[in-house]
Amino acid sequence: MVAWLRHAGSALLAVAAAPVVGAGLAVRPGWREGIGERLGLRTPRARGAVWVHGASVGEILAATGLLDALLERGRVVVASTTTASARGVLARARPGVPLTLAPLDHPWCVDLALSRVKPSALVLVETELWPAWIAGSARRGIPVAVVSARLSDRSFARYRRLAPLVRGTFARLAAVGARTEGDAERFLALGLPADRVLVTGDLKLEPPATPAALAPDLAALLAGPFWVAASTHAGEERAALDALEATDAAGIASPLVIAPRHLARSEEVARLVLRRGRRLLRRSRPGPLRPLAAGEVLLLDSLGELPAVIARARFAFVGGSLAPVGGHNVLEPARAGRPALFGPHTGNVREAAERLLACGGARRVTSSAELAAAAVEWLGDPALAQAVGEAARAELEKNRGATQRSLLLVEALLARGAEAGA
Fold first, then answer.
1. Are 286 and 218 in contact (CB under 8 A)?
2. What does pTM read for this prediction?
3. DSSP labels, 22-83
4. CA distances (Å), 138 to each of 17, 78, 126, 131, 174, in order?
5. Structure letter (DSSP) for residue 191
6. Which residue, 312, 338, 340, is CA-closest to 328?
7. Active site includes 390?
8. Ranges of each domain in the chain
9. Which residues are 318's β-sheet partners?
10. By the 8 A CB rule, do 57 and 129 touch?
11. Set 33, 37, 59, 237: catalytic member
12. CATH number of this structure's domain 216-397, picked from the four choices 3.40.50.800, 1.10.8.110, 3.20.20.60, 3.40.50.2000
């Protein structure tokens, strides 16, 4: 009876959603990419694999250490992402790992995907709490863990308002490896038993074992000193170009790399750079194999190369923070021992931003003028910039071990599952 009701509800949901999905596919052709995977029809077959899922580029790259550790233990793994761009980045970073786009969070899509993989465990990274996927796993006896788990102020408030609706989803989680004590307390407040919640740390805080490598042609362009405006939104490129003019006026002209958060804005950013009278080079278009000249701008309109570029920069401004977006990965510069600048809007990365500010490994700027002043100071005093970057790297070293602790959490789940099946 329960199964019949579940399938009836799924059918009604599918009928109700069909017009919305159809309209979405018509208006946004990009949604059609990987539609077979999203429907669960083309998920890789990998019986007994540990399925690791991260939504976008930052989350899945943070989980690469965990994927590597599971493979070293002899585990079969499958990885999935929500976005096609993240899947492409991971395919280049870990070409031997079977990849798929995550199934749509509908019982039919989830069941098809799970029936193909038949995973031994599902490991979700950060905040990927998909109700149908978690419920479908629980019905099949597949333990679900969340690693590097976080709940932002907004998410926590929303889940508390919807407590009667989400209580079942949280109750089905077999284990949560929280980033911080604060995140752990929030999961406990939402009803998880204390014996299922551990503080394992933030996978994004894990210092990399080896620095990201630049492609040879990009290395030739970035052979000299430069700085980066990373993951920028509308208005932030203008602020970065204002800062470039300020460094020119101060007699310490330097090249600038601009990496817009959304590649769809590349043409808009290119036009802005040209209107400001700057020589523009684009990563997507082959150019001269010589270092960028002072005052030139490289538009990084490519995927997956930003971490390696930041690792070679004098410093990085991290976008989504002067624009009221909430901030992006302020830890990427710290991972490479580079100082970071970011604006006042860092609600999405609050703990990381506060950690870097407290250790002296970053600086907050509240306006275009303050960004320009900081750029002049750090370009004019390389030793100061290096000291700030080293403070950031040292702070991350204190948190080394998140990958190992997450691995132990997953291995404990697998061991319990093996005992139960024996």
1. no
2. 0.73
3. HHHHHH-GGGGTTHHHHTTSSPPP-TTPEEEEESSHHHHHHTHHHHHHHHHTT--EEEEESS
4. 24, 18, 19, 11, 9
5. T
6. 340
7. no
8. 33-206+400-421, 216-397
9. 230, 342
10. no
11. 59
12. 3.40.50.2000
How is residue 191 written in tokens?
């009803």
d(CA 371, CA 245): 12
Give the CATH class of 33-206+400-421.
alpha beta
Q: In terms of Cα–Cα distance, which of 110, 129, 152 is closest to 352?
A: 152
> Rounded to whole angstroms, what are the CA distances from 164 to 13, 158, 160, 161, 190?
20, 12, 9, 8, 10
d(CA 185, CA 320) in angstroms, rounded, equals 27
- Domains 33-206+400-421 and 216-397 are alike in CATH topology: yes
Interatomic CA distance for residues 165 and 179, integer angstroms: 25
pLDDT, mean of each 10-residue run, the chain (422 residues) = 40 41 48 84 92 91 93 96 90 92 96 96 94 96 96 89 92 96 95 96 82 86 95 98 97 96 96 97 86 96 92 97 94 94 91 93 97 97 97 90 96 85 60
Q: What residues contact 228, with CB distance under 8 A and at least 6 apart?
A: 256, 257, 258, 259, 306, 309, 310, 313, 315, 316, 317
